[in-house]
Amino acid sequence: MREYILETKDLSFKYPDGTKALKSVNIKIEKGKKISFIGVNGSGKSTLFLNFNGVLKPSGGSLIYKGNAVKYNQKSLLELRKNIGIVFQDPENQLFSASVYQEVSFGAMNLKLEETEVRRRVDEALKNIGMYDYREKAVHFLSYGQKKRVSIADILVMNPEVIVFDEPTSSLDPKHSSQIIDIFDDINEKGITVILSTHDVEIAYSWSDYIFVMKDGEIVKEGTPYEIFSDDKLINECYLQKPLILETFENLIKSGKVKSTETIPRNKQELFQLINA
Fold it and tell me: ABC transporter domain: from which residue to which, for each copy (predicted)?
């Protein structure tokens, strides 16, 4: 039986200037899965994410966490934000402490934990993102990619059940993007539900268990990576691109060079295996 950790029911949000950023969004996110949200800028992804942990309060509808509708009092919001962490697109908007250790320890200290537990959590979070050797380094001396990692550790130290990443690989080169995705896989293997928004269709296709497509504040389709990216009409209407792996596979099928469609490749290795077979 599927267990849903986060749901929205007819969730809507309108900004003070009257912009309707979300329109009756209904989604269910399965616990422990890797989830991607895709769509052009302005489709509502970031606004939805800020509703996920109570930074924004919906204008209508409800957010449901582990079967219970979220209440917007201080105690409930603190509990929600402890369990659902957001890593913003630009780490400069999240990092504010002098050193890496001070930065990552801040959240754990706010939980009123014993000092030994704070140190244990900080050390573990920094090791998980490959930044333990930089723990005493000044934050402003870090590279952009290193700052991205520290912003992830900021959330990991809270021991959340869900981590939400807004455009986590933007402004990163392919090598560092790949390293960030490896970190997501490690996080997910620990049982944490990982949610991200991305414009990178290659990442969405190869990494995700499930994808939601947004357009104009609405969910226009949801499904497995293949269900999403094999829908040519959807790709055109939502200004997306077909992932190169899937496009290559479909052309091989059309040309008769590959006959079996039982295994649909999700990455280069699977595609090469199919061709060699």
Answer: 6-241
